[in-house]
Fold these 4 entries.
Entry 1:
Amino acid sequence: MPVSFVIDLLRRLSVWSFWPGLLIVIWGELKPSTSNPQIHLWDKLLHFTAYFGLALMATLAMRARHPIAWVVFSLILFGGVLEIVQSFVGRDAEVLDEVANTIGALTGWALGWAIWMLYDKLVGMRRPA
C-alpha cells in the first residue's frame, strides 16, 4: 500500500472526525460528573487524550501548515473556557485539567507535525532526481 494512500486516508478521516470529536469532548466536559472532585489520574488522562486527539486530527487535516499553530492555540483556549463553564454546570473547574489539555494538544500537534515531516521525507526520497 503506497504511503501517499495511507496519509491521504488519515487526512480524510481527520477532516471528517474532527467536528464529531470536538462535540464529544464538549459533552464529556460539561455532562454531570459521577466522581468525587479529588485529583484522579484517570481524569487527567482523559483530558490529555481528548486534546491530543483533537490536535492530532487538526494537524493531519491541515497538513501541518503554519495556521495550525492558531488552531492548536484555539483548542487550548477552548479547553480553558470549558473549564470555566464547568463551574456553572455543577462541576469543578480544575487548573490541572487545563494543564492536561494543553500538554495533550501540544503532543498531538507534535506527533501530527512529525507524521507530515516523515511523509515529506519518504515522498522526497521517491522522487526522481
Entry 2:
Amino acid sequence: MRPLILICLSACLSLVAQDNPGGNRMGIGLSLLSPQSAWGDLFDTGFQAGLQIHFNRESRFLSRLRIDYLQSDSKRAIQAGTYLVWNGSGYDTTPRLADSRMEAYSIAYEWLPHLEPHGRRGLFGIFGVGGTLWNETLRFRGAFQETDTEVEWGFTASAGIGWRFNPHATVEARFVNSDLSFHGHHNYNYGPSRAYLTFGTSLRF
C-alpha cells in the first residue's frame, strides 16, 4: 500500500504547477468502505484509495477515470471447506476455518453531472462503469498456517451523489456493485455479486 501512496503524492505534486486551469487534472480518492450483500455479513469496514484523472474540468459535465484499491478483513473466521479428523474409531468431518483479507483492484469511468453550469462547486451525481479484479487471501487456522488465494473478475457499476466545495475538494457517497457472473463462471464465493458503499473525498490538483 505504501508504494501506491507515494505514486499518488508524486503524481499530484508534479501537476500542481500546471498553468492551464481548464485542463485535465490528476486527483486522489480516499474513502471508508462498507461491504454489503452476502459478503457484507462476513467482512468488516475497510477502505478504498486510488488515483483519478479528471476531464472537462471546467464543464458542467465533468468526467473522470479512476483506478482504485480496496481492502477489507473478515469479522471472524470463515468456513473454507472441511477436513476429516480421526476420533479413534472413525473419521469426523470438521469445518476448515480461515481468516480472510479481501482486496480488489478496479478501473472505472465515471460521469459527474453538476447542477451548477460549471464543475467548480455544488451538488453533482455520480454514474460509472468499469471492471474489478477481486483477490481474497485465506489464512487457515491450525498448526501449519497455510494460505490460499482466490481470484475473481467482476463487471462493476456505480452510482452516487457528491458535493463540491471548490474546484479541488469534494465529499462523496457511492454505491458500487460488482457482478461476478457476467462471464459465465459460477464457482464464486459469497454470491454472484459483491456490493459496497463508500463515503469519502476526492481531491484534484
Entry 3:
Amino acid sequence: MKVHNHVKASQMRWAGILMLILLLGGLIGWSLGSRQSNKVAYIQTAKVFAEFQMTQELDAKLDNTRQARQTIIENLNLRMQAMQSRRAPLDSLDAIRRELSHRQDQFSEDNAFQSEQYTDQIWTQLNQYLQDYCETEGVTYLFGANGTGNLMGADQSYDLTDEVIAFVNQKYQNKL
C-alpha cells in the first residue's frame, strides 16, 4: 500500500492524540485504585490502519484520481511536444506551458488535500469502531503501539491487533 509522508504525518498526529488521551485515562483509573478490575490491551495502530478496509478503498480511490490527473499531465506534455515539432507560434507554446504548470500545481495541492481528508475520515471512523470494540468486549483501556513512545513494549498476550482488525472490518462491511 502506498503511504505518503503527509499521510504518515497526519496518521501519526492522530495516533499520538488518541494515545495521549488513552494514557491519561489509564493513569487516572490507576490512581483511583480500580486497576484490578480493568481489562487492558493494545493494538498495533499502523497495522490496524493499513488493514482497515476503508483505508484500502480510499487509497485505491486516491490512486485512481492520481492516475487520471497524471494522464491529463501526460496528454498536455504530448500536446506541447507536438506543437514544438510543428514549430507552433511561441505564444501558443507559452499558453500550453502555463496550463501545464498550473495543472501540475493544482493537482499536487488537490492530491495532498484529498489524501489528508481521507486520512481524517479513516481515523474518525476507526476511533468510533475502536470505542465500539471496547464497549462490546469490555476493554477498559486500549492502547496503541506505534513505536513513537506511547507504548514501546508489552506482553504479546495483550495484543488484540488481529481481533480488532476483524472487528472494525466487519463493522465497516455492515455499514456499507
Entry 4:
Amino acid sequence: MSIFSADHPGVQLDATTLNNLELKEADLRGYFSTTQIRKLLDANPGCVGIRFYNINPLIEFPALLAVCISDKGADLRNTGTHATCNPINRKDGNANELSREDAYIQIKNGYSLGVQESEKFSSFFSRAMLHNLEEGNEHDGLAFYKVIWLGGRSTHLAVSSDFDSEALGLPIIGLNGT
C-alpha cells in the first residue's frame, strides 16, 4: 500500500509509547478543529489525506498549514485545499483558507535558511487516520505535536484535544518523508 492511500492506518501509539515520548508544551505546533479538517477532506474528492507543514517556526507562536494531497503525493492546487491554523497562542481552532500562492509563501518561509533543520518537515495523515482520530472524539479538534520518530526524523503526532485539558487520547504518528 502506498503511503498516499486514503486507507493508510498510520502508526497508532499505546499509552506506554506515548508516555515515553515525554511531550512538552514547547513541542506543540498547532490545532485544527475537526470541522475544518472535515471541510478540507469533504470538499475535495481527490484528496486522500492532508499534509501538515510547519509554518512560522521563527516566531514565538508556531502554526501549521494543512494541504490536501492526491494519491500521487502531490499538493492539490484547487481552491479550498489549503488552510492555516491559528498560532498556538490562539486555541479557538479556527483556520483560514489560503490561496495556493499564499500557501507557497508560508511553506517557503517555514523552510527558509534561518530555520533550524529540525523544523523543516511535514507529515501526512490519510483520511483513515483522521477519521480514526475523530471517531468517538468528544473534543473540539486535534492538536499536533512535533516528535522525533524512527530514524531520528521529525514528524507530527496528532491527538484529540478539548483545548482546555491536558487529556490526550488516541494518538497517531504522521508519516514523514513526504
